[in-house]
């Protein structure tokens, strides 16, 4: 029997004009990227600002099952969701944000970890045990994997893949697991944080449980963020709405697969439902799986008509040509694993878009047409045959 939802006291958002999040993202990207100039040295007036490039779990997720000959699928070589990974992304010119997953331990500490369960070998016989991250206290969580104190030996860290295999989790460049507070204190302040509020799809949460976890996260953010840009996002519709009610300082985005996967909760099954949720709850944007946008390009205009910002995530965002297409479509930002490659590619987009533009006449379509003629990307057969 489902538990009745507990009452929770929330702080209603203050009556204030909605921020133009897309403009803020564009401005941050412009500050983070080299500015193209004309022959006279002035910035081209007609240039479209670059997409915001967001490092996925820092400098890229660890895809343990990827074939060695497929570096594009392998993802990051630094252990994901660690200070080292975040700072590696921050060091790349053009990266405006790093994205990471936050869960709250049993004793109320927000920690950064993607998977719902954490696995290790408990003894020399190779016996594998898995525990839910939110069932651990902080000390136990930090005992897994590489340790900051070199004199301590951490528990071997394993990872369960979607196909059920459990593999040893190793990265070329290692680092210890970390807390949200450590990220605010130890990551280059040049980059903003895209904080994904992580909840298990297989659990039903009461409003009180969601509120307790969100308040623990907000306490750290309010105390340590300072002037760093922060975006909240979540696949959990109730959590996304609740974090918007609990604060109005930072924008909240709804994460969605946009229909590329189906869930019992209809709010998660289409871009139309995502827009409806955002408008009703006063959220500022949508983060969609990129395939959903490529399947429904007309949805971009509808999202913008609703005054929402749009970012995307997914493996196809590691293909520069796919990112370029999104730039032309009007997407505001992309979450990527191949951080250096995509950031470098995106830095060239405004120069092409503004090459023949002027401040008089010539709409956006004309400028983009000029860009396509001047520097149309070359799509290879494998890249054009992606299944979406």
UniProtKB/TrEMBL annotation:
Family: Belongs to the glycerophosphoryl diester phosphodiesterase family.
Leading EC class: hydrolase
EC number(s) stated in the UniProt entry for this protein: 3.1.4.46
Top-level taxonomic group: Eukaryota
Keyword tRNA processing: no
InterPro entries, sorted: GDPD, GP_PDE_dom, PLC-like_Pdiesterase_TIM-brl
PANTHER family with a match to the protein in the record: GLYCEROPHOSPHODIESTER PHOSPHODIESTERASE, GLYCEROPHOSPHORYL DIESTER PHOSPHODIESTERASE
Gene Ontology biological process terms in this record: glycerol metabolic process; glycerophospholipid catabolic process
Reaction catalyzed: a sn-glycero-3-phosphodiester + H2O = an alcohol + sn-glycerol 3-phosphate + H(+)
Name this polypeptide is given: glycerophosphodiester phosphodiesterase
Keywords on record: Glycerol metabolism, Hydrolase
Single GO MF descriptor: glycerophosphodiester phosphodiesterase activity
Occurrences of domain GP-PDE (ranges): 51-346
Pfam families according to UniProt: GDPD
């Amino acid at each position: 029997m489902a538990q009745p939802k507990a009452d929770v006291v929330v702080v209603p958002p203050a009556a204030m004009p909605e921020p133009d999040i897309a403009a803020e993202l564009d401005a941050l990207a412009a500050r983070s990227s080299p500015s193209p100039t004309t022959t006279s040295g002035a910035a081209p007036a007609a240039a479209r600002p670059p997409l915001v490039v967001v490092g996925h779990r820092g400098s890229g997720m660890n895809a343990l099952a990827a074939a060695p000959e497929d570096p594009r699928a392998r993802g990051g070589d630094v252990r994901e969701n660690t200070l080292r990974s975040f700072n590696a992304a921050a060091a790349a010119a053009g990266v405006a944000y790093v994205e990471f997953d936050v869960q709250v331990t049993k004793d109320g500490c927000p920690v950064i970890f993607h998977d719902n369960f954490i696995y290790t070998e408990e003894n020399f016989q190779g016996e594998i045990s898995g525990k839910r991250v939110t069932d651990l206290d902080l000390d136990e969580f930090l005992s897994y994997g590489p340790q900051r104190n070199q004199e301590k030996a951490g528990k071997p860290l394993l990872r369960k893949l979607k196909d059920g295999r459990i593999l040893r989790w190793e990265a070329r460049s290692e680092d210890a697991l970390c807390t949200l507070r450590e990220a605010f204190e130890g990551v280059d302040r040049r980059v903003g944080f895209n904080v994904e509020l992580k909840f298990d799809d297989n659990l039903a949460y009461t409003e009180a449980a969601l509120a307790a976890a969100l308040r623990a996260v907000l306490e750290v953010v309010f105390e340590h963020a300072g002037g760093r840009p922060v975006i909240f996002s979540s696949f959990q519709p109730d959590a996304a709405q609740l974090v918007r009610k609990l604060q109005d300082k930072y924008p909240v985005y709804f994460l969605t697969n946009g229909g590329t996967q189906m869930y019992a909760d209809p709010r998660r099954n289409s871009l139309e439902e995502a827009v409806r949720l955002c408008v009703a709850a006063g959220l500022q944007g949508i983060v969609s799986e990129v395939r959903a946008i490529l399947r429904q390009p007309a949805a971009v205009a509808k999202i913008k008509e609703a005054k929402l910002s749009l970012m995307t995530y997914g493996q196809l965002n590691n293909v520069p040509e796919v990112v370029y297409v999104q730039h032309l479509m009007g997407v505001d930002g992309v979450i990527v694993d191949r951080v250096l490659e995509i950031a470098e590619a995106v830095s060239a987009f405004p120069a092409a878009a503004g090459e023949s533009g002027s401040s008089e006449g010539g709409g956006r379509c004309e400028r983009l047409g000029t860009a396509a003629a001047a520097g149309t990307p070359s799509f290879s057969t494998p890249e054009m045959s992606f299944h979406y």
